[in-house]
Amino acid sequence: MKHINRVVEWKDIVRAKVPVNGINNGIYYGQTANGKRDGFGIFYCTKYDDTPYLFECEWKQDFPINEARYICVRENRWQEYQGQINWSYLINGKGVWKTESLHEYIGDFRDGKSHGKGKYIYPNGKTYDGEWENDKKHGYGKMTLADGSVQEGIWKENNFLEERKSMVKPAAIPQKYHSFRCK
Q1: How far apart are CA 109 and CA 64, in angstroms?
Q2: What is d(CA 96, CA 61) in angstroms, rounded to the nearest whole number?
Q3: 121 phi and psi angles, rounded to 5 deg
Q4: Is 143 contained in some domain?
Q5: CA-only gyration radius of the chain, Å
Q6: Whole-angstrom distance between the N-terminal and C-terminal Cα of the chain?
Q7: DSSP 8-state code for residue 167
């Protein structure tokens, strides 16, 4: 097995010739190997629109891998995410996304969007539990309004098409994604 000599250091990250997913310059504190982010660390950066991001995750050869946590501030309101992330800093796999305005999504993501099975909780108490495609309710799902009334059936691009009751129980979301707090 090859030994990797890791050190912990502050490192300025200069934007690549082609920025990954709009990431601009930033600063990294954490483990490095051969001058690249490698191991655990935090990365503060901005995106092309000057939105600040703070990533906390494991890195391999300068790219995020596995589980991650990030927080960003858009229009003076924070958003946070915890779960799987891909090499281009996009949410991919299972995770939880929350906002300061009390929106929350627990479930599957693909390329930074809710995609697959998931539950969205709205600030007014309304919930949607079902299938998603590219950030839109799409497929079978159940909308429960704050007053307890239910719309259950087939959705297409956020529009309710037809009522239908399911005989299949929705996929379970792992317990570790049900609740998290920034430390």
Answers
A1: 16
A2: 26
A3: -115, 125
A4: yes
A5: 19
A6: 35
A7: S
Is 38 within 8 Å of 55 (Cβ atoms)?
no
3-state secondary structure (DSSP) of residue 21: helix
Whether 78 and 50 share a structural domain: yes
Q: Count of alpha carbons within 13 Å of 180, Cβ hemisphere only?
A: 23
Q: Are residues 90 and 122 in the same domain?
A: no
**24 and 74 inside one domain:** yes
Enter the tokens of residue 76. Answer: 């003076």
Joined tokens for residue 122: 């709205």
Question: In the predicted model, what is the mean pLDDT of residues 49-59?
Answer: 92
| Domain annotation covers residue 176 | no
**In terms of pLDDT, which residue wins out, 169 or 94?**
94
As a whole number, mean pLDDT of residues 105-119 equals: 96
Distance CA 10, CA 80 (A): 24
The answer to whether the CB of 85 falls within 8 A of the CB of 57 is: yes
pLDDT tops 60 at residue 129: yes
Taking residues 142-162, report their average pLDDT: 94
Domain membership of residue 7 as a residue range:
1-101
